[in-house]
Each structure stands twice: as structure tokens, then as C-alpha cells.
Amino acid sequence: MKIVLLTVGKTEDAYIKDGIEKFVKRLKHYTKLEIVDLPELKNTKALTQEQQKTKEAELILKKLSTTDHVVLLDEKGMEFSSVQFADYIDKKAIGSTQSLVFIIGGPYGFDATVYQRANAQLALSRMTFSHQMVRLFFVEQLYRAFSIIKGEPYHHQ
User: Fold this and answer.
1) What CATH number should be reported for the domain holding residue 121?
2) What does the entry list as the binding residues for S-adenosyl-L-methionine (predicted)?
3) Binding site residues for S-adenosyl-L-methionine, as ranges?
4) Quick one: average pLDDT of 84-98?
């Protein structure tokens, strides 16, 4: 199973990039992870929030195939413990999921068309984090999930 993290915008802070790279490198032992950064919109001051979400949706939807299992990282999504998230990943890997795509949207969330395309929504927390921090938290949790699946000592209960 291939896992894709699709994001709107790039990670700018070096310490966050370093953290992401650390976990991406570790994940290579378990799965193929591809991080796709979509370009941030230009001249957004002339656009409403809804117009920005619509334009971001166009970019997001172009990157998806009909066979992708799409999970939006969204504050209104289902909440898992790390063990429950590992179980979710494991079930997708055992099942017929070929490509599992997690999406981090722009600053205003997702357009209705992206919600309609999604198979699920996942909240990393009920707290709000910057989009850059969410990337790091997500790849760490993905690594943790695989270490749980493999019974390795990274995760402690």
C-alpha cells in the first residue's frame, strides 16, 4: 500500500522540515510514503475564503485518482488513540486499499467538493495547530502506527 500526504503549501521552518525528514526516513522501512506539496495560492487578498477553498479544491482534486482512499485531516474528523490509528492503517493495508491519501488543506479548511470526494475525516486533536506543525505530528503518528503494527518498542503503553 502506498501512502500519500497531500498538503497545500510548503513547510518553511527548518526545524519542522528536519523533524519531518527524520520520520520520513524511518518510515522507509515500513511503507512507501510520498509527500506532495501543492503550491500556495497567489494574490489571495483579492479572494474570499470560499474562493480560496474552491481554488485549492481544484488543485487537490486534480491530484486524486478514482481508486485513492482519501482521508482529510480535519478538526471535525474521527479521533483515534495511537493504537486505534495503527489498527486503521493495518486494516487498510490488509484490505484492498492500494493508495491511502491523507490531505492537509489550506488555512480555511476544505471546499465542499473535497469533503464529497473524501472517504473519511481524521482529527489529530481537538486543538488547532498550524498547518506546518500538523505535517510533523502526522508523520510522527504514522511512524508510531507502523511501530505498533510491527510490535516494536517505540510506542509505550
Assistant:
1) 3.40.1280.10
2) 73, 105, 124-129
3) 73, 105, 124-129
4) 95
